[in-house]
Structures are given as C-alpha cells and as structure tokens.
Amino acid sequence: MNSMFSRRQMLQTLSSGFGYLAFSSLATAAAARESLDDKPTNPLAPKDPHFAAKAKRVIFLCMRGGPSHLDTFDYKPELIKNHGKTGAFRGSLLKSPWEFKQRGESGLWISELLPEIGSMADELCLLRGMNTDLPVHPRAMTQLHTGATQFVRPSLGAWTLYGLGTENESMPGFVSINSPAGASQEMGSAFIPSVYAGTKVGGSGGRGGRAMRRGGSTSTVPDIRNSGLTTKQQRTQLDFIQRLNQEKMQRDQHQPGVEGVIESYELAFRMQSAMPEIMDVSGEDEATLDMYGINESATSAFGRQCLLARRMSESGVRFVEISHNGWDTHFSMDSKIPELCEQIDKPIAGLLTDLKQRGLLEDTLVVWAGEFGRTPYAQNGNGRDHNNKGFTTWMAGGGVKGGFSFGATDENGYEAVEGKCHIHDWHATILHLLGLDHTQLTYRYAGRDFRLTDVHGNILKDIIS
C-alpha cells in the first residue's frame, strides 16, 4: 500500500464503487468486519498536550507574496522624514502613502487601510521583529510552513495534528482552504504518517478563490458524493477492502503505511456526511453573513473562507489554514495594496468578532503571516522589493497578550533590531501555546529524531498572557 495515498484518492475510490470488484465477492464482508481484530489505535484520536495549553486549535491566515509591513502594521515616522533619501539602500526611501492611526485602548498603530482589523486592535499581538532566512518566495514560504528551506519536512499543521490529534473523528484534523496547486509540501506530512497531512478544500490560492463563492461550497471537495452506491453498499465494500488491509498487516507485522491507509479510508467514508454539512453556510443568519462581508463583492470569497474556518474550528478541526494570494507588490502598490487590504479587512475582523462572541477566541489561536515583508526603499517607483530581514506578523486569542506589540525593526523598517523572532522561534511559540514542547515533539526517521524547529527555537514568553 502507498503511504501517501491521499484522502481525495480515497474519496475517489469510495465514490467510484470499486467497479472492478463484484458484489458477489463482498457477500462475506459484513461477517469479515465483525471478525476484525487487532485494529490499530486511531492515530487521529485526541491526545493530551505536554502541559496545560493556552490554545486548543489554530486558524492560520496565510498572506502569500510578502505583505508590506510598512503599509499595514509597522508605523515608521522616521521613514516619513527620510522619504526620498538614498544611502545604504538600492533605491530611494519610500514612505507609506497611507496614514497610520492609533487604535483601541491599547493605541496600536495600524494603517488606515485596515480600519475593521484596527477596531480589533485590543485583541492583536503584533510581532514586529520577524525575520527569516531567504528573500525568495518558494523557499521562504516553505520555511514558514515547515521550518526548512531545502528539505521536505512535515508542515506546522501536520505536526500540530500529530501532537494533539483531532476532536472530530468525522472531519480531517488539518484543513487547507484555497491553497495553491503547488502547496503540497506546505500542507504535507513528509515522513510522518500521511494521515496527518492537510486536506485541501476549494480554490487555487487566488486572492478571492472563485470556487469558494458558490453556495454551500460542497463542490470544492472532490468526490465527496457517491452517485452510484448507497451508504450501506459503500460500507460493505469498504469492510471488504479493510479486511484485506488487515490481513496484509498481519503478514508483514509492521506496516505503518497500511495503518495510515486504513484510518484514511474510514475518515474519507465519514467525511461524506460530515463535510458537506459543515461547509453549507446557508443556515447562517444575515447578521453573521454581513459580519464576514459575504454579501459584498470585494469580500465575499475571503469572507466565506473565514466563516468556514470558524465552522470547522467549532466542529473540532484542530488546524485550519486559509490562503490569500497577490501580496507580491513590486509595482503599482498604490492600487494593489488597498485592494488586497479591502479583501481581507472585514472578513478577518468578522472572524475575530465571531470567535469572541462564541467564547472561542480565548482558546483559538488566530495567526496572520506572510513569508516575509517588503523593503523601505522604492522599486519601480511605486513598489517594494522582498525583505526577509524584518517584517510583521500577528496573533490573536489563544493565550497571547491582546493590544500588545513585541519587537521592532530599525527606524526605516528594514531590519529587525529588537525582540527578534525567527521562524523557528515563531513555530516554537505556537506549539507552546498549544501545550506542546517543541523539543519533545519529535518523530524518529532515518536514524534520528526530527522536530519542527530542528535544533533551534526560543519561545516568546513576553507575548504570552
């Protein structure tokens, strides 16, 4: 059996009806199921954290392309004064075209482009001293997700699911919404069992995710329905296949790949009823839809994704990631950045508000991040280049201090100089908030114990409430 057999392939298999098998061969399947013994423990069952957790689940808002921290969350009055000057930079310094205002009782400085998120300032913990290794999109995005730039490693979502399991046996524990076609490594499990990999839902990583605009969005989960067989027939069929899998395990003694396939088949079967129900937002009231901006053209798609993230988190999904593309603003930033900010502003504020109203924000860690930031100097006259030396991410809920700013870049916003937070530190802190010791969350592979943070990682204790 192939340990990388995906849940989509399993849904396809269930949906197709195993046409090559005659139902006469399945006559004994029900009896076979009753005799299944030595069934492996469900690897997705909830697990105790290493210590008391602040957060139970994560919603990761991934802004692809490198959002400009200088035009969103990192206010630089000196950059305004230095506008047009040259020096050690490769171009003239460029101030933000937009005003920053102090928001909430905490007085966090946030761009005028994000008024709705600004209204939630007292829930935000800004990490303004971020830095990563490379200013190259693919490698930086891979490091953001896996901690590595060169090697295939398990993703943050996969490590989280491996460490904690999931609270809903009928849903994937790790869901990636609107991820790009080439993001398999970012949501993959690498060498840990494939059952911990992310399940892709809808879209192709676009800014709005056109596929996510449709009704209840069930069509964005491939092969979720079987038009040829009843549920009872599928169950009988699956029992027979699982019996064959069990016999192989008994022959080979140790087959972790087959164990993963067995559980993934069962999960795919259960998903057929659970997933469409959770993805159908038609039962939400108008006030909720308005809160997420679902009835407005600019915010409809991303708003729907944020609402789905809330519904999935509420149902027990451990880790939900949403992708929003287009933040690579080398030019035309005066028109692109406002458009991008408009698309995410109301939906994200709606998500935070909704989670708070439902009592979920206190144990849901919401994370906003891109792979790096942008330079303080101009590129193409009206754009900014890649900058891995200093940028901003933020967290909310899940045990972090609200209305708090940690770390800083230099006066022009080029390089982190205070409260430096490398991606390894960021990962270590997220795991810590989930009750996981990043040095103890390991997996034995190729003769050594691997972990998300490799041999690095310092917990940002100053941001923990």
UniProtKB/TrEMBL annotation:
Assigned keywords, A-Z: Signal
Signal peptide: 1-29
Region (Disordered), start-end ranges: 202-226
Classification via PROSITE patterns: TAT (PS51318)
Coiled coil: none
Top-level taxonomic group: Bacteria
Protein's UniProt name: Sulfatase
Organism the protein comes from: Mariniblastus fucicola
